[in-house]
């Protein structure tokens, strides 16, 4: 575990974030005392069930022929 002063951490935040993303834990000190810890984030997600997604999209009603025109008109009106 590495320790770094707050002023140095401010100046090198991007580099510290890269180090933390690589698995390193960094302690940030203020006046020599630990005040924060920069650690890698834990990613928790479940794999996507493609069959369930396919069943869901197949169950959706088909779009009406004019829907795309409405969406385009809304998009174009928002541009200007």
Automatic annotation (TrEMBL):
It comes from the Bacteria. SUPFAM superfamilies: YefM-like. Coiled coil: none annotated. InterPro entries: Antitoxin_Phd/YefM (IPR006442), phD-YefM_TA_antitoxins (IPR051416), YefM-like_sf (IPR036165). Gene3D superfamilies: YefM-like domain. NCBIfam families: phd_fam. Belongs to the phD/YefM antitoxin family. Antitoxin component of a type II toxin-antitoxin (TA) system. This is Antitoxin.
């Amino acid at each position: 575990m590495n320790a770094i002063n707050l002023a140095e951490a401010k100046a090198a935040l991007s580099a510290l974030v890269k180090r933390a993303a690589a698995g390193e834990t960094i302690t940030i000190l203020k006046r020599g005392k630990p005040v924060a810890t920069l650690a890698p984030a834990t990613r928790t997600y479940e794999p996507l069930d493609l069959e369930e997604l396919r069943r869901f999209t197949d169950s959706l009603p088909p779009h009406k022929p004019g829907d795309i025109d409405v969406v385009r008109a809304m998009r174009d009106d928002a541009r200007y």
